[in-house]
Design brief:
This protein is mostly helical and 460 residues long. It has a single domain (7-202, 216-459), classed as MFS general substrate transporter like domains (Growth Hormone, Chain: A). It has 15 helices and two strands. The protein has a two-stranded antiparallel ribbon. Helix 1 (7-39) packs antiparallel against helix 4 (104-136), helix 1 (7-39) runs antiparallel to helix 6 (177-202) and helix 2 packs antiparallel against helix 13. 53% of the residues are buried.
Length: 460
């Protein structure tokens, strides 16, 4: 049975990831920079803190997915979490970007506590939100369309943060940079509450499990851990996120310490741009190009199939990423072109990943006779967190290994920053392609799975 989804509901679903993505981009693009250049702790300490807190939190995603699967309210299984936890999400988000008046050790403890709480509340909201696509509709094409809307809105929220944060913090805080960051994040927090509530009110849950028999979390986890295709797709997702995270985390450093101040000719005028202005232009260009890739996803999935389309564009991402190393710091236009090319290529796989986890949910039900939508879709958040964790930690460790010191960058540090922006992400992209080669759930295989599931439904 195909559950058609209205344009209004697709828009409503998209708002949820606009909310999540504003904070996700705060973490992926600015967090390590905030900790080293604003908050006041070392790159290595920040990297270790993020590695420890987020690895533990990534495991919580599976638990949260299982809990969400067992939630039963008049609003459904997954939507209520957007209503219940949107305000705590915003409050803790602001606290994460608040700088206390402590010495470095005290600041580090505060960072551990605030960031751990933020990741926990992010899990509580985002795992049910990610699972929602699996119960809005059962149709793979409709899910791909929903995924495209989701990530278009996600990138919209990300662009808003990337384009405005540094300048907004400067305006709101004046000479007090730490206050400026706190106030700017507060504005994004208010917006996130509004967006989560819009998703709650504009979406509906329709797809019910094939069988209403009760199963334990232990049984669901056993099914998952015996699902080889889940492990393969999880690895693909982790390395894809590492690719994106390394580039986003390195971008501010790359622009500040390699490109520096630039003069850009636009519309007959010469614009003098510092690193904040460059970040506000070039990083959103990458994210905006992601949106083009996202909207190509449905067409490419129909033309090549999800697996082949994913592989092609990750290979393009790999090759283009390598070009960031030899580029001259005076060639701002080549950098702009690369941002567009890599942005489009890296954007297309993201909604495909969401739709492919939908296939994993169907495949798991086909094999076991039990459906665990929340548990399966929690893997998306899990792969994001594992990939983002490794990417951010690598950023911190690479900076530390090349002797990075804020506002006092040596030639060695500059080379490390360039390497971090180009070669290391390319390796991650290559590894995602390797795992895709052994992933077997292509369109013909999934047609067999869906046909047999529909036969079971008709018999019931």
């Amino acid at each position: 049975m195909i559950n058609k989804v209205s344009f209004k509901e697709k828009i409503g679903y998209g708002f949820g990831d606009a909310a999540s993505s504003m904070f996700y981009k705060l973490f992926t693009t600015f967090l390590i920079f905030f900790y080293t250049d604003v908050f006041g702790i070392s790159a290595a300490a920040a990297g270790t803190m993020i590695l420890i807190t987020r690895f533990w939190d990534a495991l919580n995603d599976l638990i949260m997915g299982a809990i969400a699967d067992r939630t039963k309210t008049k609003w459904g299984q997954f939507r209520p979490y957007l209503l219940w936890f949107s305000v705590p999400f915003a409050i803790i988000g602001v606290l994460t970007f608040t700088t206390p008046g402590f010495a470095e050790n005290g600041k580090l403890i505060y960072a551990y506590v605030s960031y751990s709480l933020m990741m926990m509340i992010y899990t509580v909201v985002n795992v049910p939100y990610s699972s929602l696509i699996g119960v809005i509709t059962s149709d793979s094409v409709q899910r791909t369309s929903l995924a495209s809307y989701r990530y278009a809105f996600a990138f919209g929220g990300g662009i808003l943060v990337q384009a405005t944060l540094l300048k907004m913090a400067g305006v709101l805080g004046g000479d007090n940079e730490q206050l400026g960051w706190q106030m700017a994040v507060g504005i994004f927090g208010v917006l996130s509450v509004v967006f989560f509530l819009l998703t709650f009110f504009l979406t509906r849950e329709r797809v019910k499990p094939l069988k209403q028999e009760k199963s334990s979390i232990k049984e669901d986890l056993k099914d998952l851990l015996h699902n080889k295709q889940w492990f393969i797709l999880l690895a693909v997702g982790v390395f894809t996120v590492i690719f994106n995270q390394l580039r986003e985390g390195a971008a501010v450093y790359y622009l500040k310490y390699y490109f520096g101040e630039q003069e850009l000719m636009l519309f007959g005028n010469v614009w003098h741009l510092d690193y904040k202005a460059l970040t506000g232009i070039l990083v959103p260009v990458w994210t905006g190009a992601n949106i083009l890739g996202v909207f190509m996803a449905t067409w490419m999935a129909k033309t090549l199939g999800k697996k082949k389309a994913y592989m092609v564009f990750m290979i393009i991402s790999l090759v283009a990423s390598l070009l960031y190393y030899p580029i001259s710091p005076n060639d701002i236009y080549m950098l702009l072109l690369l941002q567009v090319v890599v942005g489009i290529a890296a954007g297309l796989p993201i909604p495909l990943m969401l739709a492919m986890f939908g296939d994993i949910a169907d495949y798991s039900e086909w094999k076991s006779g039990r459906r665990a939508t929340g548990l399966i879709f929690s893997s998306i958040s899990m792969s994001q967190k594992l990939g983002s964790t490794l990417g951010i930690a690598l950023t911190g460790y690479i900076l530390a290994s090349v002797g990075y010191s804020p506002n006092n960058v040596t030639a060695e540090s500059q080379t490390g920053i360039r390497f971090m922006m180009s070669v290391v992400p390319a390796v991650a992209a290559g590894l995602s392609v390797v795992f895709l080669l052994v992933y077997k759930l292509n369109e013909s295989y999934m047609k067999k799975v869906k046909d047999e599931l529909n036969e079971r439904i008709n018999k019931v």
